[in-house]
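tool=predict chain=A
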Amino acid sequence: MDHYFERIKNGRLKLHALEQELPPEEAVKVRRSFLEDETGVSLSALGKFTIDIDRVVRRNIENMIGAVQVPVGIAGPLRVRGEHADGHFYVPLATTEGALVASVNRGAAVITRAGGADARILRDGMTRAPVFAARDVVHAAKIAEWVTNHRDVIAGAAESTTSHGRMLGLVAYVTGTNVFVRMEFDTKDAMGMNMVTIASEKASELIESETGARLVALSGNMCTDKKPAAMNLIQGRGKTVIAGVFLPETLVSEVLKTDAHTLSEVNHRKNLIGSARAGSLGFNAHAANVVAAMFIACGQDAAHVVEGSSAITDAEVREGGVYVSVTMPSLQLGTVGGGTGIDTQRECLSLLGVSGGGDPPGTNAKRFAEIVACTVLAGEISLLGALGARHLAKAHKTLGRG
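tool=predict ok
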């Protein structure tokens, strides 16, 4: 090992190149040991893991030194009544926030006792929006016109790069001499960012050659990826999912220790008025908590919690109870690719019955999206109930544990 340390220190061997000389597991060990030697910090806990190193260093990470372990808890059973997910599910949640799993578990119990939550996917399409430079505004208008009139030709070019993806549509937006072409794709069971990026590159080459536009960036931030954006809230990105359940007054009183009117008022004044006053793009109690916990457990791109948390929660008083719903316009997830194949994450997806590609393709990702939406609904119901009953601080004192 000293031999490698010496070569790294004198610059003859780069840390990222260790896998070129050593098996992946040994490369990770040497890199970690070198850092320990250099910094005097023990990294022994990072070196204890069960995931397949060979796969991870090829597909998921560079300069690996170990793995961070996040506790995983279970909420459920949760009764889901979706078009793709129909049954009782135990939902894995990876988090270090005490009280979160307990809260979602309570919400799941309420939903299940109420007969289950309905879930529907309204639209499904992953986007990429390259930005082109035009010579002047007249040229910009001509580029947008050509793009609009040649959708099928552009789709053919894009789809030539993939056996799974299909272009659903595109829209050209002009701002001065900037032309943004927001392309949308069906990516089946993959979250699809890699797929649509490669497809958009091919489409962009065609647009350049036919219009004289100059591609500036393959992502022009109108996609919009991993940033809060009204575009995603309105138009949607990934899966647009809704979930809802009617809660009888007796159930609200017995389990949530509040009443339908109070639950609705808390939602109105907190989630709707409070969020509007703050200029928020998310009108919910804590959707990000649940999305993050499920994404980490199930191998999703955790940064897409940004869009996934742009959800709207509603609570309508009805005769005999309250109808609570969540709308998630931009839920970006997949069951193949990315981190979904890592051993521990694959097990969590398998627990939900959605690991790998669906039959027909796309059904596993849709099923997963419906489960996520219903779990978010469970979290919203529980927190609204805790606020209505004034139990929030008590719960955090009991379960948060500082």
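The radius of gyration is 24 Å. The mean pLDDT is 95.
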